[in-house]
Specification:
21 helices, Nucleotidyltransferase, domain 5, 5 domains, single chain, 18 strands, GIY-YIG endonuclease, 5-stranded mixed sheet, alpha+beta, 653 residues, 7-stranded mixed sheet
């Protein structure tokens, strides 16, 4: 983002917050009088007509008034949103159920920032199936990126180990694509020969048939094991009656794989006729942990976890919102007949009617007080309590380390965002750098960055770590230097960068920068920051490897620290992660260079043809052994170029 774009966005948002409806009572009252006392959905917009928030209400006018009359009682997040509201749109519906359905559709369409109730937490993994592709992929991810509307995420799952085991068993039971890219260009690999893959790379199976296989796999992660087992049993009997014993045997193996999948489910309930979900939560002042148990045919088949802001609403409202968001993204067949909740829902009848309409069968929402269902909810609540304890213990440990680090470095407040940098090369060749980020003491891998060093003074046979680190700093903070030159208030970022709600949007300003190295690297970094005009705005330190000593700018002596103190251990963990990330990228670059090096020396052979040759033959050794005719068969390689390649590897012939 350039200086003009940064300045414009900051100015627009400041003016938006200054001239919103909250600061214009007459305009606000006029807008609210236009809103009817009927059910429907409302859309709150900022000064640029962007949708900030979408909600539903039984009485639209009353609900909207509550945002402005009780403004001081709202959470900080919602207060910030209300200050940005310039306009309010509304859509009237005939009933609350229609409003609920409309709200879900509008949120999916507009993706408003302030509708994110569930925290962006990376502790729980999802399973993704890319239904939008001809040959869908199935993989585990911790980030629900915005993909095609056809793609589906299942989860979030609490036990990632169990999820990996389940996916491994599924891939053994059903023939699925095993690789992102084909191993060979014109033939199948070993996975096809042993029946693990249906030959996706060579299109040995049609997209329609492959989708049919994936639909069976999806039933496993929807908790529909019994339904899938019955479907496979019918297909096996049909194939046997048609004397197609080979297909029948494959389905028999799949049934055996399903038996292995359900073998780990130790919990079972006496009532195996109903499918039900049970949801409960445990919370403190900072975090609410919600868990949802999925019970199908009397067995626990899934355990999902969610983290929420406990200040956002009352417990019943939080549970209802989790259920609304969860069931809005599932297929009708995944909705159970019964949902047992810990607290009464404020609009449970509306939610039940909506789910019944979506499922085309009656759905009951209960708040059990006695017998087995109440015991199930208590079990879910106990598991949520354990999850809260783990999260709280981890949070406390990280907070203690951050506070100790702030005291060690004499910072104004515990650093929220810490960045670590390292350089990796071998005598100047394949020189790269890494940037790793800790937020609240936890690794934020979505913010990791890698740099290919471009300085002319860094070349094979000549290394300069000082110059390399200075180059990385200039590239990393050039945008901030331009923003400061454009009038951006850097003092405000130093004071407020630890606040989770950064209204300007420049959220990558670090509270602390750590350099892997000693006084030399630190001096080079500070020189680069002086050139950018940011030396006085950034907190920088260096961690030397040999004696684990911490240096600050302008100081000749290391800080007085203990080897086992929490702040120093946090810096060492950050340094080790930066080193790991840099070394892995260096090895990748070195491996690519070694593959390309000799082919790049062939006259008339450019990068594209080199990739075609490597893709076809898979190695340089295979290219050396190939004849002129075999090389000429590669797409894009004519007889003349094939002769040049062959002569390059056979100069004596």
């Amino acid at each position: 983002m350039g200086a003009k774009a940064t300045e414009t966005r900051a100015r627009d948002l400041r003016s938006a917050m200054a001239g919103g409806l909250l600061q214009n009572p007459d305009e606000l009252e006029t807008r609210l009088r236009e809103v009817p006392l009927e059910p429907g959905c409302y859309l709150m917009r900022d000064g640029d007509s962007r949708v900030l928030y979408i909600g539903k209400a039984k009485k639209l006018r009353s609900r909207l008034r509550s945002y402005f009359r009780g403004h001081g009682l709202l959470s900080p997040r919602i207060q910030l949103m209300v200050r940005q509201i310039h306009d309010i749109d509304f859509i009237v519906t005939d009933s609350e159920i229609e409003a609920l359905v409309l709200e879900s559709n509008l949120i999916k369409e507009h993706q408003p920032y302030y509708n994110i109730l569930l925290k962006d937490d990376s502790s729980y993994p999802y399973l993704c199936i890319t239904w939008s592709e001809d040959y869908p992929r199935i993989f585990i991810t911790r980030r629900r990126r915005r993909r095609s509307p056809q793609d589906r995420f299942y989860g979030p799952y609490v036990d990632v180990g169990l999820l990996r085991n389940t996916l491994a068993l599924v891939k053994r039971a059903f023939p699925l694509r095993q690789r992102l890219q084909p191993l060979y260009r014109h033939r199948t690999c070993l996975n096809f020969d042993i029946g693990r893959c249906p030959g996706v790379c060579q299109r040995r199976i049609s997209p329609e048939d492959y989708h049919a296989t994936l639909k069976k796999v999806a039933m496993v992660f929807q908790g529909r094991n019994e339904e899938l087992r019955e479907l496979l049993r019918e297909q096996m009997i049909h194939n046997a009656e048609c004397l197609d014993f080979e297909k029948a045997a494959r389905i028999r193996d799949q049934l055996q794989g399903l038996d292995q999948l359900t073998a780990h489910q130790k919990m079972s309930l006496p009532d195996d006729r109903l499918s039900r979900d049970a949801i409960a939560m445990a919370n403190n002042d900072q975090l609410a942990c919600v868990q949802l148990f999925q019970v199908r045919a009397g067995k626990l088949v899934g355990r999902l976890g969610f983290n929420l802001d406990p200040q956002a609403a009352a417990p019943g409202h939080l549970l209802q919102r989790v259920l609304e968001e969860h069931y809005s993204d599932v297929e009708p067949s995944e909705i159970p007949q019964e949902i047992c909740v810990q607290y009464p829902l404020p609009a449970g009848d509306v939610l039940a009617a909506w789910l019944s309409q979506k499922r085309q069968r009656k759905v009951h929402i209960l708040t059990p007080k006695r017998q087995q269902k109440a015991e199930l909810v208590e079990l879910v609540e106990r598991n949520a309590g354990f999850a809260l304890q783990r999260a709280q213990r981890s949070s406390q440990e990280q907070q203690l380390a951050l506070e100790d680090l702030s005291q060690l470095l004499n910072l104004d407040h515990p650093p929220r965002r810490i960045e670590g940098y390292d350089i990796s090369h071998i005598q100047g060749s394949d020189a790269v750098a890494s940037q790793v980020v800790l937020i609240q003491g936890l690794a934020a891998r979505q913010h990791y960055r890698r740099y290919k060093l471009k300085s002319g003074s860094i070349a094979p046979g000549h290394s300069d770590d000082f110059m390399a680190m200075a180059e990385v700093m200039r590239r990393r903070f050039r945008r901030w230097s331009q923003a400061k030159a454009g009038g951006e208030d850097m003092d405000r970022h130093r004071r407020q960068s630890s606040h989770p709600l950064d209204p300007i949007g420049l959220s990558d300003w670090p509270d602390l920068v750590m350099i892997d190295g000693g006084k030399g690297q630190l001096s080079a970094v500070m020189s680069a920051l002086h050139q950018l005009g940011l030396a006085e705005d950034l907190n920088v330190c260096a961690l030397a490897k040999r004696r684990e000593q911490v240096f600050l700018p302008g100081s000749q002596e290391p800080l007085d620290s203990e080897p086992d103190q929490l702040g120093l251990l946090l810096l060492r963990r950050l340094r080790d992660e930066a080193h790991r990330f840099a070394v892995s990228y260096h090895r990748q670059q070195r491996g690519d260079r070694m593959k390309r090096s000799r082919l790049s020396e062939v006259p008339g052979l450019g990068p594209k043809r080199s990739r075609e040759l490597l893709s076809h033959f898979r190695s340089l050794a295979a290219i050396q052994l190939a004849s002129v005719e075999q090389i000429a068969q590669v797409e894009g390689i004519g007889p003349a170029v094939a002769r040049q390649v062959w002569e390059f590897f056979h100069p004596q012939c």
